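Sequence, please.
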């Protein structure tokens, strides 16, 4: 399930960036609103697509329970994955070799 979620998260982020880049260069206030609304719609709506993908692939093997029929637990899982990925990438990039000053 983690691999499927990670793949769907990467696709969601790529779609969000593509839409943002489309509206970024447009002049005026309307494109800024459309950019913000589309970003929200993609990031929020994609979670329901992910839930359906999990349901199609795993069926009754995976159950999210709790408030709002498990949607809160699912959102917590997705945000947990994003936070963990962010922390691991920060640690990884902080460990990269830095050029030494040879003065």
């Amino acid at each position: 399930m983690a691999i499927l979620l990670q793949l769907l998260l990467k696709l969601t982020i790529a779609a969000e960036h593509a839409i943002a880049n489309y509206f970024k260069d447009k002049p005026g206030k309307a494109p800024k609103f459309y950019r913000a609304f589309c970003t929200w719609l993609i990031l929020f709506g994609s979670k329901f697509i992910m839930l359906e993908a999990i349901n199609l692939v795993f069926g009754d093997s995976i159950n999210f329970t709790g408030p709002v029929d498990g949607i809160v637990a699912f959102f917590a899982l997705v945000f947990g994955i994003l936070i963990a990925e962010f922390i691991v990438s920060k640690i990884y990039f902080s460990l990269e070799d830095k050029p030494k000053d040879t003065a």
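Residues 30-58 form the longest helix (29 residues).
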